[in-house]
Specification:
Layout: E1 9-12, E2 15-18, H1 25-28, H2 32-39, H3 43-66, H4 86-99, H5 103-109, H6 114-134, H7 146-152, H8 173-179
Antiparallel strand pairs: 1-2
């Protein structure tokens, strides 16, 4: 499927080239090495993540767009999006996080504008976070729940990565003693 832009040759200052077809999941799902290089997932992992992503996307769209009181058109009216398929939306955001290209590069690869790419990045990042939360694939952020999280992962070794943050030194000597980390000099 070629986009309207890709059917024509482009000329910029006397230089012309034919634009490649738009990136999509349908084109890459039969190429496992390329799919893994672009998203970090193989096809089975991608399909497994697709279900919670779809649920989270529909919930996000309902909360932010469908139930909006100030709508001028009903939901679904207007121009049809370039990323129409939910697979392409998931592919887009995974590609962004894995490869981390500039927004202009993403706009070129997905045949859209840089402004639209910026909107997609912000919307689909929230949706992906919601989907990973539903799939319980997000890391635990609260150290109080660490024991409960480790109980789920019996056969997995655990490494805790932490950094020490500077604190304002309390004036009360007892509080100073409680907050003292044991270091003699501050870290650079």
């Amino acid at each position: 499927m070629l986009s309207l832009r890709a059917q024509n040759h482009r000329q910029i200052k006397g230089f012309s080239w034919e634009i490649a077809t738009v990136l999509s999941y349908q084109r890459l799902k039969d190429h496992p090495r390329t799919l893994r290089a672009f998203t970090g997932l193989d096809q089975a992992e991608f399909e497994k993540l697709l279900t919670p992503f779809t649920i989270a996307y529909h919930a996000y769209m309902y909360d932010h767009h469908v139930s909006k009181k100030t709508r001028k058109r009903r939901y679904g009216g207007g121009r049809k999006p370039r990323l129409a398929a939910i697979e392409d939306k998931l592919f887009f955001i995974l590609f962004y996080y894995k490869v981390y290209p500039l927004q202009e590069v993403l706009a070129f690869l997905f045949d859209t504008s840089q402004g639209r790419v910026n909107e997609w990045m912000h919307q689909l990042s929230v949706v992906l976070k919601m989907a990973l939360g539903k799939a319980q694939a997000l890391p635990e952020r609260d150290p109080k729940n660490l024991e409960q999280t480790l109980a789920f992962c019996v056969s997995v070794d655990c490494i805790i990565d932490g950094t020490e943050r500077r604190l304002q030194r309390p004036q009360d000597p007892t509080e100073q003693h409680e907050k003292y980390s044991g270091k003699k000099k501050p870290t650079p």
